[in-house]
C-alpha cells in the first residue's frame, strides 16, 4: 500500500506567486498590494515608481522604466500594482493572478479626496506633493478616462489571460482570492514522506 503524505508550505516561506493589480486612482490597489506584501512577505512594486525618479520627481526614460519593470518581473515572487497598461505587458503575461479593481465611481472618487486631505494635513505620506489642480485632474480627467477608455483596453489586453484575470469591485476581495490561490499551492501530495 502506497503511503501518501501532504506537505504544507507556510505563506512567506518559499511562497512563489506573482500578482498584478490594476485599477484607477483611488481604487485601493496600493493599499491592498502593500497588505498582501506584508502578509506573504513578497516584494511589492508600484508602476508609478518605475515611471518616476522619486529623488527629484522627474520622469524616467522609457528605457529606465522598462529596465526597472523587467528586473521586478524576473523575480520569483512579486506584487506589481498600478494604473499603467500601455507598457509593461510582460507583467500580465508573467502574473499568476491579474486583478482589475472596478469600484463604484463615488467610492473611488471619495478615496481620492480622502487621500488628498490626509496628505495635505500631514496624516499620510504621499509619493508626490498634492495640489488642488492635481486633485481635479485625478477626479475629472484621469478617473473618467480610465473608466471610459482604460477598462475596455485592459479587458482587451488581458483577454488572452482570462483564466487568471479576476475582476473585483472591492479591493479586499483580492485578499480572499489570493488566500484561496495560496491555499491551493500550499498543500501538495507526495509519495516521499521523508521530504
From TrEMBL:
The keyword Transferase applies. Keywords: Kinase, Transferase. GO terms for molecular function: kinase activity. It comes from the Bacteria. InterPro entries: Cytidylate_Kinase-2, P-loop_NTPase. This is Adenylate kinase family enzyme.
